[in-house]
Every structure is written in C-alpha cells, then in structure tokens.
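FW: tagging you since you asked about this chain on Friday. Here's the raw sequence from the shared folder, copied in full. Didn't touch anything.
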Amino acid sequence: MALTNGNEIFNAARKGKYAVGAFNINDLEWTRSILAAAQATNTPVLVQTSMGAAKYMGGYELCLHLVQDTVKSMGITVPVVMHLDHGNYEAAKECIEVGYNSVMFDGHDLPFEENLEKTKEIVKLAHAKNISVEAEVGSIGGTEDGIVGLGELADVEEAKTLNATGVDYLAVGIGNIHGVYPDNWKGLSFDRLKELADVIDTPLVLHGGSGIPKDQIIKAVSMGISKVNVNTELQLAFAKATRKYIEDKKDLDIDEKGYDPRKLLAPGAKAITETTEERIKWFGTPAIK
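HL: got it, structure written out here
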C-alpha cells in the first residue's frame, strides 16, 4: 500500500474518540518491528523520524525510501503515514520537498508571532502537495533533539490562533514531557485538555506518550487526544531485551552463531513489536474493516 497523509486517519480518530499511535523509527529494525505490529493488529500507523534520527540514518530521503520499500517488501496493507517529528523550519521545508506525507513544524521555542508566521508558511507549502502539518503550542517538557522544554501548559488563546492557520493536527502541552518521567511528575492536566478540546476540533497530539500511566492515556484519548507519540518506551524495551540476550551469554554461543547481528538484535526487535501492539490497544485504535 502507498503511504498516505494523516488527514483522514486522524480526523476519524478525533470523531471516534480513539487515537492512532505515532512511533519513532531509529533504524531498519525499528521500522520493520513497528510496521509488523500495525499489520498484526490491522490498524493504521504513523512512523516518524526526528531530525537527529534522520541524520543518523542517512538523511530524510533515505528514511522515506526505507519506509516505502519496507512497506512494499513486507506486504503491509494498512495505511502508513511518514512524518517528520519536531522539525525546525528548514527541516520541515526539506521533508516537504523530499516527499514526506506529513511534517511537524515545532516553533514553540520561537516568539509566538514568529511561530505563527512560519507555521502559516509551512501549511501553505505542505498543503500545496497534499501533505499534513502538525504544529505545537506550549512547551513539551524534557529534551528532544537538543530542544529543552519546561512542560508548560498550552495557552488556550494561542492554541486557537495557531490552529486557525489550517494545521491538520495540533500538539499541546498539558503537563507531558519527553523521555523518562520523574517520580515527582504531577500527571496530565485534564482541566487544560478540556479547555483546549472544547474550542478546537482539530485532532490534538500528545507528545511524550512513553511512561504516562495507562489510565491517563485512555482518559486523554477520550477527551480529544487523537495522536499519541511513543519513542522512549520502545528504546527501553529494545535495550532491556538486548541486555538480557547478552547477559545470558547467547552472543558467545559459537555453535549457534549467537554473535550474528540478526540474532543479537532479534529479541529487541520483538520487544518493539510487542510494546507497539500493546500501546495500540491502549489507544483504542480500531481494526480496519
């Protein structure tokens, strides 16, 4: 199946009060494992590259071709969206030119008026090529590709103004953070989420989906969150499974060629698939009929 933009998928999610997972890829194993989970559950999926991951993998064009070719080689039949995660202005423009189906322009660290004007420009460029656009209002806590956010709550009026640019989905700060959540984390602000969802019909995006308790994820989705980003959780699952393989000294088994990278990486890849399938269930993503 050819890749698609996110409009129909996430609009349906907002109306149906469920979410679709947005999972970061970091290499071939990540790509195959996430796509395998989507196919196994027969649900749409968004795969995304951060600027740092794309640089590590060889650039945006290579990443796009990797996903396109993997979809083809695996016989994936569910809708797949190729998305830029937390892109700056130049990265968003490059991904539009390369042919991503969806881009996020993250201008939260800019003065609001500059964020607004650049979002308008990205929307204009992307929509001319039938590409979805995600914008961000309010800082998401933690660190993403060197951008540090304090986790402030999104301003409702700013969110309404940014949404009026015609973005296709809007990332909002509601107490969520990137990376591992600290022990003293206060949880999501459902009061602020309700304020935002009451005045914005556009699908809302929850960044930092890794580590938020299941009950809070489910509640947020029921209130208007339509896209949930997951990255750290998959990295932790991969690391844990890979560590166990090595601690069990399976890599030292010469007769079984345990040192073969395909065997060394297999437990981690399986863990990614299993974690992705579990999160798809959390999000309530319905199987395609």
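FW: The first strand starts at residue 20 and ends at 24.
HL: agreed, and Confidence is low (pLDDT under 50) at residues 143-150.
FW: great, closing this out.
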